[in-house]
């Protein structure tokens, strides 16, 4: 469907010229000479974009723009103005105009600006539709994304929610394991009960038992005042998430195994058993099978936890979700900081999608918060993301406007060395998945394997990779 353009300019010659050029280039065009007609045509024609002259007689371009915004009409407006009226154009942009062009018009430049504006607007609309779809489907604890791998996670989580069994969630740090656990709880019959989360790696080992199971009065120094319930009791008739389960000591692993099997335990210093009705979900960014082989994690506990497993993919495994997530976070921080940043330019989205996000969704959220807090522009551009070049996920490559510039040392470097390093780094990013690595490098899988044989690359995945992260 052709995009609709409304031209509002009292210069009849310019008006007719713009109409002819844009119509010839495939746009559906309506043009008017007066401000009064413009307001009526905006209602009747419902244009995708308005080209608006600043001075139209009794009703000015500024009047029309103010009328649009006061009616909550967000149709993009590009101003047409003379050089002497630049200050007025700047004021108009503060009222919500998209951009301005100076007379005499450069028609090629104007059409580029129209296309960029329409592309951004279409991206915003698609994002809003997807956001509404995700909210309707996933409820309060929305898992934002449209990738096939994430849809499989949500489908599995919803099926397991009804089973009331123990679930093990595996995935890299920051990938959203707790959100998946919350979704399981929200979709289960226990949704009216509490959801309690505890990070087993964040509490001192000497306090871990009292945190999990509580303590009786006088059980240890500092416990003289009263009895305290632990996380398991607080989660009664609900769900408890044991995050970073691989950090538990062997002693606590034994006690946890008993709780899973009997739903009973003793408070620290207590002589009476406490019974609880609680669903246990465990999460880890470690390979628990490797931990079992090393003797740091009990085999019987692993099999008891691993009745059902969900692998949460890393953000670099679901690149198509990055733009949607970034815009979701931007909306959140716009409200938090009182900003009105409209979104990311297409080039900025490319930068986000080419960064490897070692910290996953958590790192992306922190990056968007930083931008929303510090930047004053109306949109986020590639230069606002320059700080990513200092992070490990950037891999010494500058990405700008789809160009990749690799720093070459003064002594020079052989092409085979560059290719070898690029392949090895990409395999690291994809945890050894050759299909994904080939896509990132712009090669077919067979071509990648040929290059690996030619360069004598025998890739060995790094140890301690999250379980299920490689094909």
Which tags fit this structure?
4 domains; 45% helix; 471 residues; elongated; alpha/beta; Helicase, Ruva Protein, domain 3
How many independent structural domains?
4
E-strand count: 14
Query: What portion of residues is helical?
Result: 40-55%
Low-confidence blocks of residues = 136-140, 395-405, 407-411, 464-471
**Euclidean distance between termini CA atoms:** 41 Å
Structural class assignment: alpha/beta
CATH class of the largest domain: Alpha Beta
The major sheet is characterized as: 5 strands, parallel
Which percent range describes the beta-strand content?
5-15%
Q: What is the average of the pLDDT values?
A: 84
User: What strand line-up does the widest sheet have?
Assistant: 2-1-3-4-5
CATH superfamily of the largest domain: P-loop containing nucleotide triphosphate hydrolases
CATH architecture of the largest domain: 3-Layer(aba) Sandwich
The total of helices stands at 18
Query: What overall form do the CA principal axes indicate?
Result: elongated
What CATH calls the topology of the largest domain is: Rossmann fold
Radius of gyration: 29 Å
């Amino acid at each position: 469907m052709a995009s609709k353009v409304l031209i509002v300019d009292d210069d009849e010659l310019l008006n007719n010229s713009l109409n002819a050029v844009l119509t010839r280039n495939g746009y559906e065009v309506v043009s008017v000479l007066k401000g009064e007609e413009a307001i009526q045509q905006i209602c009747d024609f419902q244009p995708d974009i308005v080209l608006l002259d600043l001075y139209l007689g009794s009703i000015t371009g500024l009047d029309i723009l103010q009328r649009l915004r006061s009616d909550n009409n967000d149709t993009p407006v590009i101003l047409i103005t003379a050089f002497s009226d630049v200050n007025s154009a700047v004021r108009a942009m503060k009222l919500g105009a998209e951009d301005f062009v100076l007379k005499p018009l450069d028609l090629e430049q104007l059409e580029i600006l129209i296309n960029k504006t329409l592309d951004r607007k279409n991206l915003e609309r698609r994002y809003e539709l997807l956001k509404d779809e995700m909210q309707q489907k996933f409820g309060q604890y929305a898992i934002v994304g449209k990738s096939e791998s994430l849809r499989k996670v949500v489908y599995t989580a919803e099926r397991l929610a009804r089973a009331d069994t123990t679930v093990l969630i595996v995935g890299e740090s920051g990938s959203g394991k707790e959100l998946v656990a919350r979704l399981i709880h929200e979709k289960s019959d226990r949704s009216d009960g509490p959801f309690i989360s505890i990070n087993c790696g964040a509490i001192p080992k000497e306090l871990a038992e009292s945190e999990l199971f509580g303590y009786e009065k006088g059980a240890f120094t500092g416990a003289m005042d009263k009895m305290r319930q632990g996380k398991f009791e607080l989660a009664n008739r609900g769900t408890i998430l044991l995050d970073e389960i691989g950090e538990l000591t062997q002693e606590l692993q034994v006690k946890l195994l008993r709780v899973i099997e009997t739903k009973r335990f003793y408070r620290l210093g207590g002589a009476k058993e406490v019974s609880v009705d609680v669903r246990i979900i465990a999460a880890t960014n470690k390979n628990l099978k490797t931990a079992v082989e090393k003797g740091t994690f009990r085999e019987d506990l692993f099999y008891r936890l691993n009745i059902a497993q969900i692998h949460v993919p890393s953000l670099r495994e679901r690149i198509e979700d990055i733009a949607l997530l970034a815009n979701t976070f931007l909306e959140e921080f716009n409200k938090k900081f009182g900003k009105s940043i409209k979104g990311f330019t297409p080039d900025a989205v490319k930068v986000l999608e080419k960064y490897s996000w070692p910290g996953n969704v958590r790192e992306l959220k922190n990056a968007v918060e930083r931008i929303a807090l510090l930047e004053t522009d109306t949109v986020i551009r590639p230069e606002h993301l320059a700080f990513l070049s200092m992070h490990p996920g950037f891999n010494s490559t500058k990405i700008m406007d789809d160009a990749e510039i690799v720093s070459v040392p003064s002594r020079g470097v052989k092409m085979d060395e560059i290719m070898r390093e690029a392949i090895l780094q990409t395999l690291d990013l994809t945890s050894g998945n050759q299909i994904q690595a080939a896509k990132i490098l712009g090669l077919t899988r067979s071509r990648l394997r040929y290059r690996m044989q030619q360069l004598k690359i025998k890739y060995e995945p790094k140890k301690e990779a999250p379980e299920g992260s490689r094909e």
